[in-house]
Known about the structure:
Elements: H1 9-12, E1 16-21, E2 26-29, H2 31-36, H3 58-68, E3 72-78, E4 81-92, E5 95-105
Antiparallel strand pairs: 1-2, 1-5, 3-4, 4-5
Amino acid sequence: MMKEPTVKWADEIPISITVCDADGIILEMNQRAIETYASQGGARLIGTDVLDCHPEPSRTQLEGMLETHSKNVYTIEKRGVKKLIYQSPWYENGEYKGFVELSMEIPFELPHFVRKG
């Protein structure tokens, strides 16, 4: 029998992680996501439609991403904090299961390296 881990890494990493199913229903949120979206309901968002959390034009864009299984990557600045947002489809055994969104704070000046090979 496998022992349950005592520390869940997703709750310890300083990145907001939200997972929804193929219909856009929020399945999971790590602790950082719950804290980030506290004003919108926090953990109570689990089981709700992710589209309801997005105003236009983001809602229409996300609907298209759910339908076409395409990803969306961008940076934002809000209240003096710059973040990288990475929204990507996720799969299980090759079958499309929904979307995961990663949101992480990044420095305003970020080194960029070009590596060969």
